[in-house]
Specification:
One of its GO terms (cellular component) is plasma membrane. GO terms for molecular function: chemorepellent activity; semaphorin receptor binding. Keywords: Glycoprotein, Signal. InterPro entries: Semap_dom (IPR001627), Semap_dom_sf (IPR036352), Semaphorin (IPR027231), WD40/YVTN_repeat-like_dom_sf (IPR015943). Strands 1-20-19-18 form a four-stranded antiparallel β-sheet, with no helix packed on it. A four-stranded antiparallel β-sheet has the order 2-3-4-5, with no helix packed on it. Strands 6-7-8-9 form a four-stranded antiparallel β-sheet, with no helix packed on it. It has 330 residues and is mainly beta. The two termini are 21 Å apart. A hairpin with a 2-residue loop joins β10 and β11. It has two helices and 20 strands. It is 5% helix and 39% strand.
Length: 330
C-alpha cells in the first residue's frame, strides 16, 4: 500500500517551465572596477575555500564557511567589509594522519565547512568535512563560539570537499541532500534533529529513487509545508543513451512521519519530476548548475514563486542557459 502511494505521488509533481533564455543578452553589464559601479571586497591570506555563505535576516552580517574556519563579516556599511569574529575549527594532527591513511590527498583533509544554517535566533548549525570524517556543531551567532562538542555529521555533510550538497533548516529540523559514505557512493535525502513524536527520515538509492545524483539546492515554501530539492542525476528512463544526465526537482512533505511497515523511517511523500530546458533545434541544457528563488509578492499565492536556474549542456562545453519557471502541484 505504501509503495503504491509513493508511486502515485511521483507522477503528481508537475513543473511548467518558460522557454530557455538562450538568445537574450543582459540589459546591464559592466567590467570590474568600472566608474559608478563600486564593489566592496574582503580578503585575508589566511582564509580560503569560502564556498558556503549565510546572510543574517537584517542583512548586516554575512557568515562565511571556509577551510578550517567560520567567519562573521560586517556588511552593514556600503564602503567596507570588516571581520567581526572568527571561529577556527580544524582537524588535529591525528585526524589528518587518519585521513591520509584512507588514501586521501592532504590538501583535501582540512575541515571544509559545507553546512551553515540558522537553527534559531541565537544559534547556527554548522557542519564540515573534517578530514573525511564529517562533524557538526551548534555555534552562537553573536560570538561564533561552539555551545557543545561537535558530533558526527554522517548523512548531514559530505566527506569529500568536492562533493556538492544542499541543506536547509525549517522549524528546527535539518533537511539535507548529500552522501552517507566517504567514497561518495550512497546518496540520500534525509531529515535530522527531529524531536518528540517526529522521527528522522531518509531516502537513499536502494529503491532506485536516486541515480547517482549531484545535489544543487533546496527550498522551502511555507504555504505548502513542503521542501523542494533540486539536483541532476542519471536518467534511467533514457536507457537508449549511455549515462544521460537529467535535471530534477523533488518534493517531500514536512508532515511526513514515515511508513508503518515497509517504509519505516523512510519518506512516503517523496516525488520527483524532470526539469527540461531546451530551445528549438538545439541539444538540451540538461545539467543543472545552480538555482535561486524569488518569493511571491505579499498576498500572492505560493504558485507565484519564481525560480531561476542555470543550466549547461552535457555535450556542448561552454554553453549556458538561464531559465525561469513556476511550479504547480496537482
Amino acid at each position: 500500500m505504501e509503495n503504491r502511494s509513493l508511486l502515485s505521488l511521483s507522477v503528481a509533481l508537475l513543473s511548467f517551465l518558460s522557454p530557455c533564455l538562450t538568445a537574450l543578452t543582459p540589459r546591464v553589464s559592466f567590467h570590474m572596477g568600472s566608474p559608478g559601479r563600486h564593489v566592496t571586497r574582503f580578503s585575508s591570506p589566511e582564509v580560503s575555500n569560502t564556498s558556503t555563505l549565510l546572510l543574517s535576516e537584517d542583512e548586516d552580517i554575512l557568515y562565511v564557511g571556509a577551510r578550517d574556519a567560520v567567519l562573521a563579516l560586517d556588511v552593514s556599511h556600503q564602503d567596507a567589509i570588516t571581520l567581526r569574529s572568527q571561529l577556527d575549527w580544524s582537524p588535529s594532527d591525528k585526524d589528518l594522519e587518519q585521513c591520509s591513511m584512507k588514501g586521501k590527498e592532504m590538501a583535501d583533509c582540512p575541515n571544509f565547512i559545507r553546512v551553515l544554517q540558522f537553527l534559531n535566533t541565537t544559534h547556527i548549525y554548522a557542519c564540515g568535512t573534517f578530514a573525511y570524517s564529517p562533524r557538526c556543531s551548534y555555534i552562537t551567532s553573536e560570538t561564533l563560539m561552539m555551545s557543545m562538542k561537535p558530533d558526527e555529521g554522517r548523512g548531514r555533510c559530505p566527506y569529500d570537499p568536492y562533493q556538492r550538497n544542499t541543506a536547509i533548516i525549517v522549524d528546527g529540523e535539518l533537511y539535507t541532500g548529500t552522501v552517507a559514505d566517504y567514497r561518495g557512493n550512497r546518496p540520500l535525502i534525509s531529515r535530522h534533529l527531529s524531536e518528540g513524536r517526529r522521527v528522522d527520515l531518509k531516502l537513499d538509492d536502494t529503491l532506485g529513487w536516486l541515480e547517482d545524483p549531484t545535489f544543487i539546492s533546496s527550498s522551502f515554501i511555507p504555504e505548502e509545508e513542503k521542501i523542494y530539492f533540486f539536483f541532476s542525476e542519471v536518467g534511467r528512463e533514457y536507457d537508449f543513451i549511455d549515462k544521460f544526465i537529467v535535471s530534477r526537482v523533488s518534493q517531500i512533505c514536512m508532515s511526513d512521519v514515515g511508513g508503518q511497515r515497509t517504509l519505516q523511517r523512510r519518506w512516503t511523500t517523496f516525488a520527483k519530476a524532470q526539469l527540461l530546458c531546451q530551445a528549438d533545434n538545439e541539444l538540451p541544457y540538461n545539467v543543472l548548475q545552480d538555482i535561486d528563488s524569488l518569493p511571491p509578492a505579499e498576498g500572492a499565492p505560493a504558485d507565484d514563486t519564481l525560480f531561476y536556474g542555470i543550466f549547461t549542456s552535457q555535450w556542448s562545453v561552454g554553453w549556458t542557459s538561464i531559465q525561469s519557471f513556476h511550479m504547480f502541484i496537482t
